[in-house]
Design goal:
It is a single chain. The chain has two helices and eleven strands. With 167 residues, the chain is mainly beta. The chain has a single domain, classed as CheA-289, Domain 4 (OB fold (Dihydrolipoamide Acetyltransferase, E2P)). It is elongated and about 55 Å long.
């Protein structure tokens, strides 16, 4: 099977559901770690990840998608999405289970009006279970992205103030 004949997805568990993200949109998958939780934390955020000196907001997909809220546990994972360093974001999920390679013919598109902000772009059947394929670009509304960007900038300044060479 040539790479152009299938779609590669990172499959994750979230609130009793299966989700997927295009593999090409995921930069790293990391285990859950301590996050900064500054005052004024936006409701959809779990906290701020210090990723090599960069402030990376960690989004709670369960809150954004109105799924049963899960407490981070032993298998919780952070998926860092690809993007410019000034707009990078991580997603908190219950666990990541696999990389799935699906023939394009088995990817069923979802109409934009059938999901909030068209954030679900397709579904895939995986061993009798439905995987909802999310569009990383449409997980947040434009206004939410603007608020998150302002919050990220504020947290980056706070992180920079704590660097020893900042003095």
């Amino acid at each position: 099977m040539s790479p152009s004949s299938y779609r590669s997805l990172v499959v994750f568990h979230l609130g009793g559901k299966l989700g997927g993200l295009p593999l090409e949109s995921v930069e790293k998958i990391a285990p859950m770690c301590d996050l900064a939780r500054p005052p004024g934390l936006l409701a959809p955020l779990e906290g701020i990840l210090n990723w090599g000196g960069a402030a990376v907001p960690v989004l709670r997909l369960d809150r954004l998608l109105h799924l049963p809220e899960q407490r981070p546990g032993l298998y919780s994972m952070l998926m860092l999405l690809k993007g410019r360093s000034d707009n990078q974001v991580a997603l908190l999920v219950d666990r990541v289970s696999e990389i799935l390679h699906v023939p394009h013919s088995e990817v069923l598109p979802v109409r934009g009006e059938d999901s909030f902000n068209a954030c679900v772009e397709a579904t895939v059947n995986m061993r009798g279970q439905v995987v909802h394929v999310l569009s990383p670009a449409r997980i947040l509304l434009e206004r939410e992205q603007e608020s998150l960007s302002a919050f990220r900038t504020m947290e980056q300044l706070r992180l920079d103030d704590w660097r020893p060479d900042a003095q």
